[in-house]
UniProtKB/TrEMBL annotation:
It comes from Virgibacillus pantothenticus. Homodimer. Its EC number is 4.1.1.20. Belongs to the Orn/Lys/Arg decarboxylase class-II family. LysA subfamily. GO terms for molecular function: diaminopimelate decarboxylase activity; pyridoxal phosphate binding. Pyridoxal 5'-phosphate binds at G245, E287, P288, G289, R290, Y387. The keyword Cell wall biogenesis/degradation does not apply. The modification N6-(pyridoxal phosphate)lysine is found at K63. One of its GO terms (biological process) is lysine biosynthetic process via diaminopimelate. This is Diaminopimelate decarboxylase.
């Protein structure tokens, strides 16, 4: 069910290349991306807007996976880029991303981050809280620069996803609340500021969401607020940014959103609301992260130790784990996997895939049907392209794996594997 093929040797292919050969060439754990899939995902969003004749900006949420090569692919696709930190911004600048196409998010942007954004003339800052408004106003005045600003609001909507990745509910650390008038107060502070070009509203209701009606509901909540602002202040927005959060398929239990019909549904809703309010159609902005990178990436591991507890469970340990994929430990996220070197063999056993961290919770997959498993088999875990490498960490002082891009039948190393030298790089002696 994953969009990968199997070659004559029975090996899993990614982007037309043998994944077992890639594992040998670059070592494991290894993240491998099919770049054409990244491009296809970008185009599904961008082309639908174009076909509908709607002015839109689709920004890739680079938190899902940021590296110089990834950001360059997004640049080649003509998309916009969402960054949430100095580090993501720095990466984008190094990748030669056009600064006017960068949008800056974050619930606690530092003065240094705001300065960096202003100095590089980035396209838009999405303001999150009252302190930030104050900082932006005074910095823009000092620099004597104007800037496009959106306001992030919390629509008060619960989305059906893991609690940790819900963001649209009223009790959220993100954005200005609509229910208590804080959003309107913030709007008034920015609307008449000579340095702020206040463009409109932003909301992001959460991540890995499948119910399109949640996004429709969020849109209608924004329009309720816009109706008030129109009536009280004569305001009409230039931009409506509806965030990201579109779910992808991790396992057979996930029926992902089909992006083209979804975008059409969203545009139709905005058009309906716009007509009811008798205002011009604003630009629609979206910020998919996972939907762009998630299913384009797989992780390859080598099977090591195996432990059988008769009648209870078969553990199969691989050479990575929560250091390269934190999501199972953090969100109980589920994944599917195959043995890349036995991809055509029938399944005959049920195993649980353990990572190698000193932590019982470091389990990548529980109860995975596989063919007979032997040491040195290559395990390929699907849909690891988003929030895998980007949430990788150094627990137990593991080095972060390499990243390889595959396109047009060629493989290219785009992030080097870390070395132990990298691990101790910042350590200073105490002797
Ligand atoms: N826009 C904003 C303002 C966001 O906060 C996020 C994600 C996105 C866009 C992109 O959401 P996406 O399309 O990728 O769902 N680490 C978690 C996901 C956290 C997402 C945080 N914000 C995970 O691994 O599931």
């Amino acid at each position: 069910n994953h969009p990968f093929t199997v070659n004559e040797q029975g090996h899993l292919e990614i982007g037309g290349l043998d994944s077992v050969t890639l594992a040998k060439k670059y070592g494991t754990p290894l993240y491998v991306y099919d770049v054409q899939m990244i491009r296809d995902n970008c185009r599904a969003f961008v082309n639908t807007f174009q076909n509908m004749g709607v002015t839109a900006k689709v920004a890739y949420a680079s938190k899902a996976f940021s590296s110089i090569a990834m950001v360059q692919v997004i640049k080649q696709e003509g998309m916009y880029l969402d960054v949430v930190s100095e580090g993501e911004l720095y990466t984008a600048l190094h990748a030669g991303y056009p600064t006017e196409k960068i949008h800056f998010h974050g619930n606690n942007k530092s003065i240094a981050e705001l300065r960096m954004a202003i100095e590089h003339n980035i396209g838009c800052i999405v303001v999150d809280n009252f302190q930030e408004i104050k900082h932006i106003r005074s910095l823009l005045k000092t620099y004597d620069k104007q800037m496009d600003v959106l306001m992030r609001v919390t629509p008060g909507i619960e989305s059906k996803t893991h609690h940790y990745i819900m963001t649209g509910n009223e009790d959220s650390k993100f954005g200005f609340n609509l229910q208590n008038g804080q959003a309107e107060t913030a709007f008034l502070q920015m609307h008449n500021d000579p340095y702020i070009r206040f463009q409109g509203l932003h909301c992001h209701i959460g991540s890995q969401i499948f119910e399109t009606d949640r996004f429709i509901l969020a849109t209608s909540v924004l329009f309720q607020e816009l109706r008030t602002w129109k009536e009280r202040h004569g305001y009409t927005p230039n931009v409506l940014n509806l965030g990201g959060g579109y779910g992808i398929r991790y396992t057979k239990d996930d029926a992902p959103i089909s992006y083209a019909p979804f975008v059409e549904e969203l545009v139709n809703e905005v058009q309906k609301q716009v007509e009811a309010l008798a205002i011009p159609m604003p630009e629609i902005w979206l910020e998919p992260g996972r939907a762009i990178a998630g299913n384009a990436g797989i992780t390859l591991y080598t099977v090591g130790a195996m432990k059988e507890i008769p009648g209870i469970r078969n553990y199969v340990a691989v050479d990575g784990g929560m250091t390269d994929n934190l999501r199972p430990a953090l969100y109980q996220a589920k994944y599917e996997a195959v043995l890349a070197n036995k991809a055509a063999a029938p399944t005959e056993t049920n195993v649980s895939i353990a990572g190698k961290c000193c932590e019982s919770g470091d389990m990548l997959i529980w109860d995975l049907p596989l063919p007979h498993v032997s040491q040195n088999d290559i395990l390929a875990v699907f849909s690891t392209g988003a929030y895998g490498y980007s949430m990788a960490n150094h627990y137990n002082r593991f080095a972060k794996p390499a990243v390889v891009f595959v396109e047009n039948g060629e493989d290219k190393l785009v992030v080097q594997r870390e070395t132990y030298q990298d691990i101790i790089r910042h350590d200073l002696s105490y002797e």
